[in-house]
Structure prediction request, 554 residues.
Amino acid sequence: MNGVEGFMYPNEITLEWSVLIVLYPFITGLVAGAFILASLERVFQVAAVKPTYRLALLTALAFLLVAPLPLVLHLGHPFRSPEMYFTPHSTSAMAMFGYVYMWYLMAVLVFEIWLDYRREIVLWSQSAGKWTRWIYRLMTLGSSNISERSLAIDERVGWIVTLIGIPSAFLLHGYVGFIFGSIKANPWWSSPLMPVVFIFSAMVSGIAAVMLLYMAIAKLRKQKIDIHCVDTIAMYLFYIFIIDFSLEMLDLIHRIYEADESFRSLNFLVHTQLYIPHIVIQICLGTLTPIILLGITQVVKLPEIARKRIYVVAGCLTLIGIFAMRWNVVIGGQLFSKSFLGYTTYKMSLVTHEGLLVAIALTILPLVFLWVLIKLLPPWPEKDVPEAAAAD
Amino acid sequence: MSVFKDAGHLLRFAGLFVLAFLVFLVVRGYVVPKSFGQYGHYRGNAIGEIAAHPIQYAGHQACETCHADVLDVKKNGKHAHVNCEACHGALAKHADDPSTVKPVLPDTAALCARCHTASAAKPKGFPQVVPAEHSNGMPCETCHQPHSPGMDAPATAVGGAK
Prediction:
């Protein structure tokens, strides 16, 4: 039984949206952010971040494959989930997710990765081991044309796909914010700023995640970290973080100044149950600290090793902060009564299908997918491909 | 023509999309019921199927025809507006054949707790208790007459513990 203070409506006592619904916007945010980082190189010609371009795409794909799982586990009845595609209800924002997801998965990410790797896929299909060769052959779709002209076409089409991918990434995550922002019965969520805040926080978390993954993988492979690349990523992370923080503060100041009928209740919540997750973890630890740390690297000339350590600490704190932001939105929005006269509590279960262990498994699962993808499609250039095989 | 030759792989990828879309259409045609959308965003045939379900509830008028003595106790009590079958369950079969189909008396220790267990969400004026503290597992009908549960009504009145 949840601990209840004051008056709650019967359907408010138990939280219906659990930690899995916190994971859903967190994971889709990482997808959108990772893709935006990839687009920096492809569309905006930021050559310094090139070493992370393919890794960012594979990261986005690995996390996107896991993105619907929290929802399926939460709703149960996985065999009913295709009905979202078969009989979508046009007036339901949630029902449109399937199409937004499928568009982003197939028309943007898979297509772009395929175009970018096509030359290597064809070469690997002729040289790899017995079993992997068949996988690569399947991936070539029966075409081994890697002439200069066909690769030039791939490059051009890939650029267009990335260009379309940027608004698609915004659509994917802005849409997640839209779902919350459009619930007018809940004053903690109902804000037109919500989609914009979600987009920028997604960019922050995705860029931080790819930066950390790049550094960790380089360390594991005993390769030198391209410090110029990491410096550039950190610079973009810093600037986008400032915009994200400004938007969140704008939303907060607007709520304080507007002080509508929900304000006293929400203010009480922020100063009691949400004090640690919102003020301490999200704002102080997960936002201000990384911004200050990244800011130091922008204004003070620090040695390389110090910068790397700062980036790792700032990246980890950023991910914690963004996760806390999702937590505070999803869980925080269900802790108070819509009568504004009472509060409930959320007690996370451990081993149920919506418990902590499942949440941890769903957080690790994208990394397993990423490992498989990296094995199949190595994102670094040093895996030699036999040039001679490119003759045709 | 060489443009088409060098872009052939793109056509194959597009072909894959078209193929996936065609498979989707075929599967959709197979799994979506024919009557879906007939009246609205649901299966039209569902209305007829639901209407064809056998009637489970007799309605309180049917109960009152035979159990007028219970009605006399109930009509002045707090449960005057609680329908008979809300507590006794669906009894259409009993109403059709009273001599053969005998309803089972509900266990009041569990039944009453459904509505009267204390919760912050319930209005203050609504009678509510923590069952373990209030009765320690004893059936409520030991003290309360279910058809008129106020303490002024004797628990041995019609319809109570038997």
About this structure: The first helix of chain A runs from residue 19 to 42. The CA atoms of residues 178 and 195 of chain A lie 5 Å apart.
